[in-house]
Amino acid sequence: MYGTGMLKAFGVTLQNFLRKPATIQYPEERLPQHPRFRGQEFTWYEERCTGCASCAKYCPLGIIKIVTDPSGGNDQDGGTYKIEQFDIDQARCMYCGICVEACPYDALHMGTRFEAATFRRQDLLITIDDLRTRPKHPSAWFRPQLAREGFDPFTEIADWREVGRETYFWHPKRPEMVPEDLEQKASSDGEYKINEGNN
Amino acid sequence: MGESLAENVVYRNVYEFAIGAFGSDLAWLAYAIATFSLVFLFVNVLMLLATFYTWAERRLLGRFTNRLGPNRAGPFGLLQALADAVKLLTKEDIVPRNADRWVFNIAPIVMLASVLMAMGVVPLGKNTFLADLNIGLLYLVAVSGLGSIAVLMAGYASANKFSTFGAMRAAAVLISYEIPLVMSLLAITILSGSMSLIDVVEAQSIPFLLVTPMGALIFLTAMSAELNRSPFDITEGESEIVAGYLTEYSGMKFGTFMLAEFAALIVSGAVFAVLFLQGWKWAFLPSHVWMLLKVGFFALLATWVRSTLPRLRPDQILSFAWKFLFPLSLINVLALSVQRLVFADDHGNLQQSDLWIMALSNWILTLFVIPILIRLTNRSSKISTERTIELQLGKGV
Predict the structure, then answer these.
(1) Would you say B227 and B261 are in contact if contact means Cβ atoms under 8 Å apart?
(2) Nearest to B220 by CA among B152, B304, B293
(3) What is the pLDDT of residue A195?
């Protein structure tokens, strides 16, 4: 019969009226983000980067620019380059994360921020200095080792030794930064344990 | 009745003050000043209530749809109306090149004037009214008809096809729903034996909402159509005709239209309270507070309806008016006439006990009549829809 559906609709809106509103008052209250959130402000670890420029090659938009200098490189330790320039044009980035997938040494990570609005487009360009100085909040996206650790990228800061898939003294660069006791432990055990004693 | 205005506190005090200042030789001036102050008060109360309602409706609509509504401007977003007004005032005032400038400019004023004039006979509390016309209800109908003229003026003068469409739709709806509206007012007149709104209130020993539920239903539905509110807001169907007759309006002219619409809602709420909810009468609280509460109840009801019902098609709206509301109002008037013949005493007065009996019989009648009418309307509108489809697309679709 006509009218009964209308009455039901009145009931539905009345229920909504009596319910608590679902609105989140954004600047004051925020929803927790997932740790694998692909956010702005890429996190880059210079200690891990060899300058191979895989990220630049795989970027679908071609917005990563890397300039390296082989003369300053460390050929003894597996051919690393001195990185002179590392620009990410965030204004055109679509946050697909393929650069992060492509990085063989876990040097580049997605960030976890999403409030990088600026008044000028050129302010969105991330230079190597920004990448060096910004606080390291690597997202756990494509980095299962971080997710496994229960790492919360929104509050915690990760050191370059904590973010790799491998134990860090595999790393071709900076072998001198590995603490000696761990090196001894690793050689005595004969096997590597992931993320152990990395404080 | 004419003397009760002199009992109004504002009127009396201003009048006595003016008499004291000018002397009794200038009594006409004192009268003019006192009346003007009362009119000033009425208009400003109405405008304030209307701006308050713009905020309240948005907050309530928000709650009805599980949101918060505007809450940024001022405490609880109370200054939202002010912010909107400032925004409207700073907009460019555009008049289309081919527009009929004179009519185009005067249409919003006519719209607002019709609402303000309607306020003239509506009592807002005990002894608080501007004029006690003995044809008050007739005056209300006549003046609210002016609003549809304003809509037609706006639509015609804009030199825009969407404006004209919107105005034509508005005129169709307004004219169709005027008839059930007038019939429900007629039912009130039969019950109270007077067209004066003051007499109507004083005749209500029990609320007429109880005595004539059909009349209240017809009044609410027809009023919501007269106010161009959902589900009858086809004049502003954004998906079809932009903003209807408001398409070419900008700035404060648009704002005046909107203000008039909201003020019309407040006025019709006051009329509903006067006709069906005993007006200012009740116990414990001052009469003005009761009136305000009843208007608020009407506004809440209107917002609830707006948040719930989607917009109807024009043909559905018109068939609802002519096939459902019009017969219902005829039955209502007939029933009340017969009851009045049976129950009224020699002086034509209805006692409270008679009103209770009438209320009971009318509720029973309503419970029977409305399902039957719904069924009939359903069938006839189904048939007409099938015919329309056949005519447009051929048989066997």
Answers:
(1) yes
(2) B304
(3) 46
Q: Look at chain A and report how many structural domains it folds into.
A: 1
**For residue B2, is pLDDT > 80?**
no
Do B378 and A2 lie within an 8 Å CB cutoff? yes
Mean pLDDT of B16-44: 80
What is the distance between the alpha carbons of residues B200 and B208, in angstroms, rounded to a whole number? Answer: 9
Domain at A185, CATH number: 3.30.70.3270
Give the C-alpha separation, B189 to B186, whole Å: 5
- Between residues 4 and 43 of chain A, which touch chain B (CB distance below 8 Å)? 6, 9-10, 12-14, 16-17, 19, 21-23, 25
What angle, rounded to 10 degrees, do the helices at B352-393 and B326-343 form?
Answer: 160
Q: Which two tokens stand for residue A54?
A: 């895989």
Q: Which residue range forms the structural domain that includes residue A150? A: 32-189
Chain B nearest-CA residue for A14: B64
- A2 at interface of B, judged by CB pairs closer than 8 A: yes
Asked if the structure places residue A25 within a domain, the reply is no
Q: What are phi and psi of A17, to 5 degrees?
A: -65, -40
Residue of A3, A10, A17 with shortest CB distance to B63: A17
Which tops the pLDDT comparison, B10 or B174?
A: B174
Of the candidates B356, B319, B358, the one whose C-alpha atom is nearest the C-alpha of residue B341 is B358
Find out whether B19 and B30 touch, Cβ atoms under 8 Å.
yes
pLDDT level of residue A63 (50, 70, 90 thresholds)? very high
- At A74 the pLDDT is 60
What is the average pLDDT value for chain A, to the nearest integer? 78
Using CB atoms, pick whichever of B304, B371, B377 lies closest to residue A13.
Answer: B304
pLDDT at A58: 93
pTM above 0.80, yes or no: no
Is residue A65 one of the residues assigned to a domain?
yes
Residue B179 has pLDDT above 80, yes or no: yes
Contacts A–B by Cβ distance under 8 A:
42
> Which residue of chain A comes nearest to B377, CA vs CA?
A2
Rounded mean pLDDT, A69-93: 77
Integer CA distances (angstroms), B276 to A14, B124, B170, B269, in order: 24, 14, 27, 10
- Cα B198 to Cα B128, B140, B188, B211: the distances in Å are 10, 13, 13, 18
pLDDT value at position B381?
66
Closest-CA distance, B309 to chain A, in angstroms, reads 7
Q: Is residue A64 part of a domain?
A: yes
Decide if B374 and A6 are in contact by the 8 Å CB cutoff: no
Which pLDDT tens digit goes with each residue over A172-181? Answer: 555 555 555 5
Domain membership flag for residue A173 = yes
Distance CA B72, CA B6 (A): 44
Q: How close does chain B come to A28, measured CA to CA in Å? A: 12
Distance CA B356, CA B352 (A): 6
State the amino acid at position B271 in one-letter form: V
Q: Which two tokens stand for residue B45?
A: 């109360």
Q: What is the pLDDT of residues B235-251, one digit of tens each?
A: 777 777 777 788 888 88
Closest CA to A158 of A149, A167, A166: A149
